[in-house]
Design goal:
InterPro entries: Homeodomain-like_sf, HTH-type_TetR-like_transc_reg, HTH_TetR, KstR2_TetR_C, Tet_transcr_reg_TetR-rel_C_sf. Helix content is about 65%, strand content about 0%. The chain has about 220 residues and is an all-alpha fold.
C-alpha cells in the first residue's frame, strides 16, 4: 500500500456508473427496502443489536411482515450479504463497458462503492457480521466474497497488460480492494467533515497511489 496499484501515468479521475440494487416489481422492491434497512441496523448495532422489532419499526411494518420475507435472522444476514455482493458485482460490470483501461474500470467500480459506504442508508453489510453466521453459511458468504475479489484480480491482470496498473500480485491486490471498500464504512465520521466527492477522492486515491502518494 506504500505506492498503490495504479501505474505512474495513471490519474485518479474515475467515471462512476451509478449502481441501483433495486429489482423490478413491488414485492422485490419491498424486499430490497427490507434488506437495506436490515443492513443499516446490523452495521450500526451488530447482529445481536439489530432485532426483528427494530427492523420492522424502521420500515413501519409489522413483525409478521419480516417473516413473510425472511425465515430467520441467520437467513436475513445471509440475504444482506448476498445483496451486498450483487451490488459489488453490478459495479464491476457497469463500468467495464465504458472504461478505456482496466484501471479506469477498477477505480470507477471502487468509486461507486465508496459513495455507498459513506452513506448510512446505502452501505454494504460489514464483514464483521460473518462472525454471527453458522459455519456452513459463513463458508458460502466467503465464497461469494472471493468470487467478487477474483473479478477484481482479473481486472488487475488486464491492467498490468495494458500498462494502467503496476506489477502487483493480482490476488493480494484484489483482497486489498475488498478490505478498502469494507473499511470505508468505519470512516463515515471523517467523510462527513468533507464534501462527499472530496472524501471519495481522498480515500480512493490511496488505492491508486498508496500512502506516500504520487511521486512523479
Amino acid at each position: 500500500m506504500l505506492h498503490g496499484i495504479a501505474s505512474s501515468a495513471a490519474i485518479w479521475a474515475p467515471t462512476p456508473s451509478p449502481v441501483h440494487g433495486d429489482a423490478d416489481g413491488a414485492a422485490r422492491v419491498m424486499q430490497d427496502d427490507f434488506l437495506r434497512a436490515a443492513t443499516c441496523l446490523i452495521n450500526e448495532r451488530s447482529y445481536r443489536g439489530a432485532s426483528v422489532e427494530r427492523i420492522a419499526a424502521h420500515l413501519n411494518v409489522t413483525k409478521g411482515s419480516f417473516y413473510h420475507h425472511i425465515d430467520s435472522k441467520d437467513d436475513l444476514v445471509e440475504a444482506c450479504f448476498r445483496r451486498s455482493f450483487e451490488i459489488m458485482t453490478q459495479s464491476q460490470f457497469a463500468v467495464s463497458g465504458t472504461a478505456d483501461t482496466a484501471w479506469a474500470s477498477i477505480s470507477g467500480s471502487v468509486t461507486d462503492l465508496l459513495y455507498r459506504q459513506f452513506d448510512d442508508e446505502a452501505a454494504l453489510l460489514r464483514s464483521s457480521a460473518l462472525q454471527a453466521l453458522p459455519p456452513a453459511v459463513r463458508a458460502k458468504v466467503v465464497a461469494w466474497s472471493n468470487r467478487v475479489a477474483r473479478r477484481y484480480a482479473g481486472l488487475l491482470a488486464d491492467g498490468m497488460a495494458d500498462g494502467s496498473v503496476r506489477p502487483v500480485d493480482p490476488l493480494i491486490a484484489a483482497q486489498t480492494i475488498m478490505a478498502l471498500v469494507n473499511s470505508a464504512y468505519d470512516l463515515r465520521w471523517w467523510a462527513q467533515r468533507l464534501t462527499i466527492d472530496a472524501a471519495v477522492a481522498s480515500y480512493g486515491s490511496n488505492l491508486a497511489f498508496g500512502l506516500v502518494g504520487k511521486t512523479s
